[in-house]
């Protein structure tokens, strides 16, 4: 039925594929309960996998390894082991190459075998396979996880370090893996090497200061040193990444430092920060730091103009109107006039925008009505009494 409907569906958001996975696994389970022979079940599974023009069976082995009974699993594994050996032998390879250097058939069969070995926690077979076709960071992560599950933390750490080393040597499309450094720190902690774990977290933070890296760093900081490391992290972030500093300041409610960062940042730097992130700045600073918020609204408006999306020009005007009020409120009229001059110079040909902008400059542009969200909140308060 899924194959019949495949040509009729332009985009199901993956729902049809997920439905197929559930249906396929239910079919296998039904065959088991009905007492069909393992040989016949595996034979039919392989037929489906081999004649799969729509890709419904792609990755189906990840689901199958959890439901095949021992005899079915043995037959399933043996089939792909035989296929791998045959295809690998035809390459004439005597020593491991990069995984990408092998034909698709070798890589495909190897990938399925790896899924089986992971499900069965068969470390020797996984390692033996990698010794034939070469090892990737993803393989190192998988093997390390298997050792970790067996509580063999030192062995797991050895493979994690091997994976991290491979990551630095070349690009690994589809064979890279995130989280190796995080797993390394977890293993170091289990092995009683807390200082090494902290050093690893600090090295990563220095490379990419962010809210996530900050959380990871603080996790390994001794409680009595948390304030010292917090200040150290803020200073490091200020020297490396404006967006990272802002993320950390919002998380830790360092409003004064956040205000200083915005005031000292150029307009261009603020405009380069993602729209959602910079909008959050206006929300948290609006009460105490009007000049910073004015710069934020300026950046939000300019981002819209640079994107050339005319349907959002009204929102840009709203941002500029708020910026104008705040600039005048803080006696920074020159900043407003500079913004006006900049917009006239760079965006005067945006005819659906510039006419209303000139009205805003002259004071003729009407005040914005309450937004849908604001109106809805007022109704909510009225209905429930606050």
Strand content: under 5%
Q: How many β-strand runs?
A: 0
Instruction: Report how far apart the termini are.
Output: 53 Å
> What best-fitting shape do the alpha-carbon axes yield?
extended
- The DSSP helix count reads 22
- Largest sheet, described in full? none
Mean pLDDT: 89
Please give the share of residues in helix.
Answer: over 70%
Gyration radius over CA = 29 Å
Keywords:
386 residues, mainly alpha, extended
Fold topology:
Elements: H1 2-5, H2 15-34, H3 38-50, H4 61-64, H5 70-91, H6 104-119, H7 123-133, H8 137-149, H9 153-169, H10 180-190, H11 194-207, H12 211-219, H13 226-240, H14 242-252, H15 255-264, H16 267-271, H17 275-285, H18 290-307, H19 313-329, H20 333-347, H21 351-362, H22 372-384
Helix pairs in contact: 3-5, 5-6, 6-7, 7-8, 8-9, 9-10, 10-11, 11-12, 13-14, 14-15, 15-18, 17-18, 18-19, 19-20, 19-21
Outline the structure in words.
It is extended, with a radius of gyration of 29 Å. By secondary structure, it is an all-alpha fold. It has a domain at 1-134. The protein has helices spanning 2-5, 15-34, 38-50, 61-64, 70-91, 104-119, 123-133, 137-149, 153-169, 180-190, 194-207, 211-219, 226-240, 242-252, 255-264, 267-271, 275-285, 290-307, 313-329, 333-347, 351-362, 372-384. Helix 18 packs antiparallel against helix 19 (313-329). The longest helix is centred in the first third of the chain and has 22 residues, at 70-91.
């Amino acid at each position: 039925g899924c194959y019949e409907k495949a040509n009729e569906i332009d985009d199901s958001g993956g729902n049809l594929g997920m439905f197929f996975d559930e249906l396929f696994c239910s079919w296998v389970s039904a065959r088991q309960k009905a007492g069909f022979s393992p040989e016949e079940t595996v034979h039919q599974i392989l037929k489906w996998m081999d004649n799969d023009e729509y890709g419904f069976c792609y990755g189906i082995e990840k689901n199958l390894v959890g439901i095949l009974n021992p005899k079915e699993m043995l037959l399933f594994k043996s089939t792909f082991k035989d296929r791998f050996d045959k295809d690998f032998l035809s390459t004439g390879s005597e020593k491991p190459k990069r995984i990408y250097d092998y034909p698709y058939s070798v890589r495909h069969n190897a990938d399925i075998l790896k899924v089986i070995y992971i499900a069965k926690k068969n470390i020797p077979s996984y390692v033996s396979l990698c010794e034939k076709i070469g090892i990737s960071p993803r393989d190192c992560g998988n093997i390390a996880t298997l050792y970790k599950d067996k509580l063999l933390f030192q062995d797991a750490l050895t493979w994690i370090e091997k994976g991290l080393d491979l990551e630095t040597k070349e690009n690994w499309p589809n064979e890279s893996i995130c989280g190796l450094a995080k797993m390394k720190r977890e293993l170091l902690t289990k092995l009683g090497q807390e200082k090494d774990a902290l050093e690893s977290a600090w090295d990563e933070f220095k490379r990419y200061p962010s809210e996530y890296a900050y959380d990871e760093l603080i996790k390994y900081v001794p409680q009595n040193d948390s304030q010292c490391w917090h200040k150290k992290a803020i200073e490091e972030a200020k020297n490396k990444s404006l967006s990272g500093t802002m993320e950390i300041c919002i998380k830790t409610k360092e409003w004064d430092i956040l205000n200083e960062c915005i005031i000292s940042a150029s307009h261009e730097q603020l405009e380069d920060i993602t729209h959602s992130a910079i909008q959050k700045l206006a929300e948290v600073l609006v009460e105490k730091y009007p000049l910073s918020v004015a710069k934020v609204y300026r950046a939000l408006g300019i981002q819209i103009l640079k994107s050339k999306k005319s349907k959002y020009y009204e929102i840009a005007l709203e941002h500029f109107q708020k910026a104008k009020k705040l600039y005048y409120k803080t006696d920074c009229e020159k900043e407003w006039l500079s913004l006006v001059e900049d917009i006239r110079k760079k965006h005067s040909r945006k005819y659906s925008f510039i006419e209303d902008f000139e009205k805003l400059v002259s004071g003729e542009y009407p005040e914005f009505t309450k937004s849908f969200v604001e109106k809805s909140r007022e109704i909510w308060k009225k209905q429930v009494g606050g």
